[in-house]
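*Target chain*
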Amino acid sequence: MGSGELEPGQLLPPMRELAVELGVNPNTVAAAYRTLRERGVIETAGRRGSRVRPKPATTGREHIRVDVPAGVRDVSHGNPDPAQLPSLARAFTYAAEQSDREPVMYGDAPVEPELARIARAELDADGVPAGPVAVTSGSLDAIERVLAAHLKPGDTVAVEDPGWGSLLDLVPALGLRVTPVGVDDEGPLPDDVRAALESGARALIVTDRAQNPTGAVMSATRARALRSVLRRHPETLLIEDDHGHGIVDQPLHPLAGTTHTWALVRSVAKAYGPDLRLAVLTGDAVTLDRVRGRQRLGPGWASRITQRAVARLWADGAVDTPAVAAAYGARRDALIAALAERGIAAHGTSGLNVWIPVPDETGAVARLLHAGWAVAPGARFRLGAPPGIRVTVSTLTADESGPLAEAIASASGPAPVRGYV
């Protein structure tokens, strides 16, 4: 396999046949197959035999992007508006001065007590079940650690489709299979989740608010329906991504605690700045113990100076969430309304992005680029969902919504009004 003689998807010979061919004990072949399976190189499907797994896509979707020439307006990036981010100077000065007085040394607690206190109080207020707190280097780091704590190569993970492109790369890179779950404006579709779990998916990853790329927000009604499904599968590993915390004003309707193993992660990237590389993770005691134990053997901890700075930002109320949510909401609404006037259906009830179904994704992206607009191709976010494009509205000005909508209408033609599932 290492030489490339065996292609992804190629069927391997039965173990007994290979043992005879090689002149070795069948137990030796069985042990080799087991090692390859544990490393995610091959997968076994019962009587259908073992096959070489598809090559993990570590950066595949990152290459599905538009190179933005000079003079083209970039609305593809997915970043927050720098003008909506708080100043970090005062918080880091405070954190550095505190670290001068109380340096963090090897063996010290990995989580800043004040950060844990504030985070836990906010989680309690949002109805998230009690659980310990860990700190990781962003949401994706947290999700990877939770998946690795419970799953083995070949296990299946149910993910939103369309969904976060980096997550769609991460799951197969860990040797795990993905199965898509459709979403609408209220979150994952219960029937799709039920089908995925009944088919053997061992984990489910959902986005509570500001879903990327669609902007979906899980409603109270949808959360009740999903809890009902999950109660029938209590062994499911449930991971919730609440990266929109701090930039959305819609209430959280957590699923946490419905299954035996669960985790909920909150990143500070969208509200306070991507370069902070910090997320707070909570979950059941076993999951958090495994995550923190493995973290100790790797990076050890996320910088306590950064944790202290974030705790200071939280304590000072550095981000006015209602005002930030209103600013992003006005930009989303303006674009969606301008598109509707031109017969184009679009989605975006929270967060930074608007998702626009289009009949010809590649053509629409190319024509928009020619018209002076760079949008994100939907292929970065899709498994089996219909084509679409993602527009980041975080820096879109009021006088840009109309021209952008006109360009999208010209580039794509009328899109289906049914939604994006």
User: Anything to note?
Assistant: The radius of gyration is 23 Å. The chain has 14 helices and 15 strands.
